[in-house]
Amino acid sequence: MARTQAADYDDRRRNILIQAANLFAEKGYARTSISELATACNASKSWLYHYYPSKEAILYDIMSYHVTELLECARDCRDEQGSPRDRFRELVRRFMSLYIEAGSQHVILLNDIGCLPEDKQKEIQELQDDVVAIVLELICEVNPALSGNKKFKKPVTMALMGMINWTYTWFDEKGPINEQQFADLAVDLFLNGLMSKEFKG
Fold it and tell me: Per UniProt, which keywords does this protein have (predicted)?
């Protein structure tokens, strides 16, 4: 007889992902053992394997959940009412909120995708490409002239993504500005340029 799933099966899997993300981000995926992960979950290795067949499967789910959240966020902002500038600003604000709330997952997505087999890498990359495509779509709504200039579409879009994606390397949520203030700063610099910005205390 097949084993019946516990009522909190999904919650337990989600907790495994959270604990694993924190460990992988802190120690590195390759340097984290299943034993260490089981300890972090206050469980045994056999208990862990009941929920995930391998460490690789855990890594894949961490990335999949995170990039899917980003994709859903991008779709929501694209489809909302409001001007292109307002929707674009809201997109960057929500991305920054996700980066702070799921900081470990974001670090792993950026740094450890190469630890997955090629077919799984491709699945994650396709989701990331969908996110970037929506960001480009919103940027082109803000400045329609970009729509007809294939040469600059990717560089412009990735310039914006570069401003916010790597904030985990330096941004301090307890620092002088919060993530929403930084998101607005990034949007202002991206849309209007440095010289248009007045910096006041």
Answer: DNA-binding, Repressor, Transcription, Transcription regulation
Q: Does 2.102.10.10 match the CATH number of domain 59-196?
A: no
Q: Rounded CA gap, 198 and 21, in Å? A: 39
- Return the domain boundaries, the chain: 59-196
This prediction's pTM: 0.89
pLDDT of 7 > 80? The answer is: no
Residue 185 CA to residue 135 CA, distance in Å, equals 17
Complete DSSP assignment for 168-194: GGT--TTSSS-HHHHHHHHHHHHHH-G
